[in-house]
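Case study.
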Amino acid sequence: MSNTRRLMCLAAATSALALAATACGAPDDEGEGRGEVPDEAQDCANYEDYGSFDGETVHIFGSILDTEGDEMVEAWSYFEECTGITIEYEGSAEFEADMTVRVDGGNAPDIALFPQPGLMSNFADALVPASEEVTALATEGWSEDWLQYGTIDGTFYAPPNSGNAKSFIWYSPAFFEEGGYEIPTTWDDLIAVSDEIAADGVAPWCVGFENAGATGWPGTDWIEDIVLREGTDLYDQWANHEIPFNDERIVAAIEKAGTIVTNEDYVFNGTDTISSTSFQEAGFPILEGDCAMYRMASFYGAMWPEGTEVAEDGDVFAFRFPETNEGDNTMLIGGEFVAAFNDNEAIEATRQFLASELYHNARLQTGPWSTAHQGVDPSNATTPINELATEVLTDPEVTVRFDASDLMPGEVGASSFWTGVVEWVDGSKDAQEIADDIENSWPQ
Amino acid sequence: MSVKTEPRPEAAPPSSVGESRGERLRRMFSSRIASFVAILIAALWTIPTAGLFISSLRPEVDIRTSGWWTVFTESNFTLDTYNYVLYSDSAGGGLIRNLVNTVVITIPGVIVPVAFAAMAAYALSWIDFKGRNLLYIAIFALQVVPLQMALIPLLSFFSQGLAIGDFTIMPAWQLDGVNTIVQVWIAHSIFGLPLAIFLLHNFMRELPSDVMEAARIDGASHSQIFRKVVLPLVTPALASIGIFQFLWVWNDFLVGRTFGGGESTRPLTAVLGDLAGSWGFGWTRLPAAGFIAIIVPLIVFLLLQRYFVRGLLAGSVKG
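After joint prediction, the assembly is written out as follows.
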């Protein structure tokens, strides 16, 4: 007995030693798609207007983690150096829950990067409205469509940080060329191409909605894309709950999404695999020629396996989700909004900087990223897909609408809408039933 | 279920008529079948941990493409993942700092509540004062309050102080950055105290009163009795409560995350949750990081399991 225990302790101690033994120097960074802060943003002369501070610290809290977080920090590193402000960035995967606890506990961060305008509006009482300078910078930098999502009850609080273009369909340019398929620009074309590909014996679509606790959200994007293209007015009414979720036009849109997503002839591996296929890896069969198209936002460009060339003449690229009505030019968007909970000169300077062309241009070049700031040159983006996304986002001709599930209350947008979508693709409920369920879950 | 299976007649000792219940249980649990079942359960329970350990030693590509059990046919081991999560400067790395944070949080987070609990338990069991039982019941009742309920009020106590109307009872603490670790220590102590006092009180209560009386007759004060008589006698109980508190503080996610002030105080567990990155793509780092997080409690448990079992019984069998 005591012998075995000694043995176990020995084993434990050995593994602890092994742990210490791995200390053989820091590993190399992976440097793919990463860039440098542009010269212009390295010059302290460009930061003079923000003033100079000594020993001031600004605490920023956001949901951006990992490499993206590092690249963001790099983009403001010269701002810190030149102004003397220390920015302490903290990222959390539990942003929503953490935010609530911190704000209620009186421990709110100086600046928060909200990925959901709906969540931000919960904290409207605690937020500091944007100053005249920040408002001026924002008006100059973003279109009216974007600014409305940083506005709560007529007061402007938060200019956007990044911009994600979500209405994209990934495909293999080589596959399309070999098969003689045309990139569709209308919904009817899309169905026609899908039929054509299916007739040639390849599954036209890859679909995967799995993402741990958030399983189902890629499905909400599908439905949003279709509602948006039925009409922006309908989309706004739906997102703001001016019409019920189970309005017949919405149910019709879900059914329309179903002509692809729940179509056994279209979906690679069958529709019953959708809710168990992770969205990160769902598009990979395109590389093998097993399926032809995958609907996912522009950020999917960073998720392809190492060595995949993401470019118009490369292994994979994306085209815009086709329009339903002629003459429409729409894009579903996502992004963070920069809101402040405290007010002092250093925080104000930081807010102005984060809304400036200087920051957005620098961030565009420190890593794969896209923005809707009018002042940036899309060709500075580090990857072709981000260049395309930034081009679309900064194009004033494009009507943009924020991801509706992020505008809806959390009980719907981050809960019943997700589960509804899963039940729908699994075939346990039809479009009308999930729409009814979601409508019933809407907080009164 | 199979524990109850009758042992084979020839292997089993003849069951005597006058056999007591305890003897019978003992005989059943030490049969070969029972041992086999116990070993089977132990093996089944170890599989996930073993899988975690094996995964943590595999190269990233292998983790992504195949299950850990494939190492038995083609083994390919590397310490790269450990190296990355512990020491890398880029995202998802540098856990060594958080490991240090966890240690810095844990040590006072264990010593402070156990020390206070020992003193409180002594007072509640051997010093006669008015309202003693009421106080004890009140402390005991505090165990019922889930700590999640106290998170926001306590956080607001730290960050805004306490005031009734305009009258300030306690100003805001104004802690920043690494200093917020004090809040974490205090929170852990507060949340650990009720159970520690309860268990120690029951343990101390059982000490023979003759010992105390003898000490008092010899002219010992309360503080002397506490230090020279009671503490040595309750050492096993102190150790077991120390282990409990250690495991709870080490594994804690919520308190460290809520009361800490950002990166500089984040414990290991809080970082583990974010390690996979915004889109969950860094999950291949999780086995190594997870193993780093469990290795210390594992060692503590293996070294001190004697006290651990005793601690489970301490206070529970009260006469």
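Observations recorded in class. Residues 2-78 of chain B form one domain. Residues 1-9 of chain B have pLDDT under 50 and may be disordered. We will return to this complex in the next lecture.
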